[in-house]
Amino acid sequence: MYTPLYRLEQEFRRQGLQLSRQTMANWILHASDTWLRPIYDVLHQRLCQEKVLHGDETTLQVLKEPNRTSTSKSYMWLYRTSGCAESPIVLYEYQPSRKAEHTETFLKGFSGWLHADGYQGYHKLPENIRVVGCWAHARRKFDEALQMVPKEQRKDSLAAAGECYCTKLFQMEQAFAALTPEERHDKRLELEKPVLDALLAWANETVAKTAPKSALGRALHYLLEQWPYLVRYLEDGRLELSNNRAERSIKPFVMGRKNWLFANTPAGAQSSAVIYSLIETAKENDLDPYCYLVWILQNASSRSQAEETWVEAFLPVSAPQVYKISQTH
Asked: Is the dihedral angle over the CA atoms 175, 177, 183, 188 positive or is it negative?
């Protein structure tokens, strides 16, 4: 529920329980490092074996980062499987910066497509990682430009024309949702590529007569700059038109950050990443995350003493059916 430890400490005190936030923090760090991190590491290995991934990142403040001020900007990165994966995996990783080398290191061994936004760092990745652009971002730029146009002039404006092209692509994708990847690939080449060709021609013509610093100018610049990545979804029917899947997965962390504001130490930030990863992966696998975590913490210790491969038994995909959300409510 994204509740910071100081609020839990206050609530427990009101109920007559003296439990300090430091004690709770130590419990969380120990549980994460001892029992949850090994599961996270196996999920990480499996994530890198996929062919299609989504990535995103958001800011995070860490107060006690070595050799940095408490107001320095750190980052929580998000990597997750795509809709074509048999078992969804959602992983967060804390890093002190936004450098592309963090993604390259985390995805070592991965070869395939990575859905991402227009951040230039993703475009510095090795050639075996083919970055796929996000049409939701492109459409959003045109929508922002449209909001700058007086209401009575919007319908026939250039911004509306750009947004219309983007919306047409999303409408087609919705119609192709039930198709197999192979069928979707063929339909895209048949029906969407002509729309893309028309949009590119229109953009090249329009940008020449548009002020570069205007909202429309910025939308056109983004579109043309990102074009090689935006059209890459045509390469395979498993690819998606937008990176909304990653944005939805990073939202829980963003919601939590509004409550607890910052992490105290890098170790705490990474423990948070591990816990968020298991919670969100559990939810993606239709598990009740609370029941799933309780099951791990009650059974992992004894199982680890009996089996070297105990971690495999505690992956979300291996969880008992009784912990499925439909079964627990």
From this structure: positive
